[in-house]
Amino acid sequence: MIAEAGHYALVLALGLALIQATVPFIGARLRDQGLMNVARSTAMAQMLFAMIAFGALVTLHVTSDFSVANVYENSHSLKPLIYKITGVWGNHEGSMLLWVLILAVFGGLVATFGGNLPTSLRAHVLAVQAWVAASFYLFILITSNPFIRIANPPIEGRDLNPVLQDIGLAVHPPLLYLGYVGFSISFSFAIAALVEGRIDAAWARWVRPWTLMAWIFLTLGIAMGSYWAYYELGWGGWWFWDPVENASLMPWLAGTALLHSALVMEKRDALKVWTLLLAILTFSLSLLGTFLVRSGVLTSVHAFATDPRRGVFILLILCFFIGGSLALFAWRASALKQGGLFAPISREGALVLNNLLLTTACATVLVGTLYPLILEVLTGDKISVGAPFFNVTFAPLFLPLLFAVPFGPLLAWKRGDLLGAAQRLIAAGIAGLVVMAVVLAWTHGGAMFAPLAIGLGVFVIAGALTDLAERTALFRVAVPTALRRAQGMPRSAWGSIFAHAGLGITLIGIVCETTWSSEHIAVMKPGDVAQISGYSATLDDVGQRQGPNYREMIARFTVTNGSDLVGIMTPSKRSFTTRGSSTTEAALLARGASQLYISLGEPNGDGSIVVRIYHKPLVLLIWYGALAMAFGGLLSLSDRRLRVGAPKPARAPRSLQPAE
Predict the structure, then answer these.
(1) CA distance 409 to 429
(2) Which of 144, 353, 554, 603 has the fewest beta carbons closer than 10 A?
(3) Span of 246-255, 363-372, 454-463, 633-642 with lowest mean pLDDT
(4) Which of 12, 256, 259, 233 is nearest to 133 (CA)?
(5) Of residues 51, 195, 183, 184, the one with CA closest to residue 123
(6) In angstroms, rounded to a whole number, what is the distance separating the alpha carbons of residues 227 and 15?
(7) H or E segment to which residue 529 belongs
(8) For the whole prediction, is pTM greater than 0.90?
(9) For the chain, how are helix, strand and coil distributed in percent, rounded to 5?
């Protein structure tokens, strides 16, 4: 009965989505408050039934009900409970159910916390959100129903893909989907504004918190996915320019541009049309990522499905929403009132430059991702576009962006003083040059680009600290006064400082890891010693261990630096008999922000084993920087000014009437 209850909850959610998509829209046309308010109640009810459906699937997995095909294909009775739960979204059908659940939750949140929105705008936003939800409910029910029963239930399941049986997969997909789907709210606001033909600073104030929330989740999701690939796949890399990785990076780039564009619109009532277009494109890129993962056009560790029928269905959804929204934009954008003007050298101008570089970088990634697919469709030729292409095209666009980042916050709105901003950044520039010179001397004869990039990263971090010093008048007033000013700073200002500094931290980590990472591959027996970057790794022994649903070969290494014991590392290799496959469980040992990394290869008949040992200098800065960016976004989101609508202009005082 649980499977049937989940299935009918999905059907009811679809029915509610169709009501939510039509009745409030009609009410907005008729200016009927009652019909428009239907959007709130149906959004809440739809969220409830989506939760029931998802809860039903989780229950089926936890109880190992193998009469349900989805449970049989992706679970096993001996699998640990945590992986029974995460296995719900470790497959195509369950992940799509999570997708629509998050979509319904965001709609319910708008209905709950959107009381300060104009009734017609809220009705249009929730109606658009419901159209998106209804299309995916149909997709699930027609092509990807997770509640299909098996006529003759088997005794045991086939188990989850071993690569996905990891704690990282408990976190990565939900975070990523919260980012992907969260941008649907920005999309719905953009379509609502085009339908109503009205957009202003209040619109930007309303849409920015939802965009910021989605951006935070997507940042964390990409970072978690990168770290999961780094430690789980055993190859020591953190980014492969895989098409599905690119599919998550593109909406992040567009969403970052959208955040900055919405800020200009909120503060200066400018870039209205551009902000609307970015809102449409960001969610369109999220939908594109969904298509790439589930259409079967890609073979990737990230890909869920290879059924062309599903791919065609999602392609139709893409054509409807992307094509329809861009057509509506082309029709209605010219009718929108243009915003205020500003000088090229101003904070607005810096943010426009930010947008141009981000969107161009995004377009570069889009071309590199889709070109091989389009070429194969047109000619049948198969090519791969990898790191060399993206290193040559993406880096030259992103490095100027990083150089410009410290200047933006130091420029005034409307008309800024570039020379004055440069003078205030002298200390940051000197810090970057000094670090660059030190690194260049330390790596004499090595790569020339790395010291320049590290100096740029230091410049970005020091530029963020310069912004803090300028806001608090540090070095110009007494320290207690500066501290009081820092305490009174808006949280959004603190968020900007942390996010910009996080970019610099991540850049330093990327450069150090890619330039000075060391690798040592050896065939080792117990007692053998491997040397890497001044460390000695001694293989003590190799043993076997039985896990709940796998058998594990585990090795023990003693790591020393000279005569000092650094630590014990225990990499392993797990064999899952049900699936007939194995996974590599790398061992990591942190030394500050650097890491030693050991993974095992295949054993040989003479008792030896292939071992890969890496030294990754400052690699953890990659993810520390991402966490700093997300924390900055969280600080901005907590700013009270982002939780209320734009202030209404004060009424002019009524003039006194002379007494008669």
Answers:
(1) 16
(2) 603
(3) 633-642
(4) 12
(5) 195
(6) 40
(7) strand 529-532
(8) yes
(9) 65, 10, 25
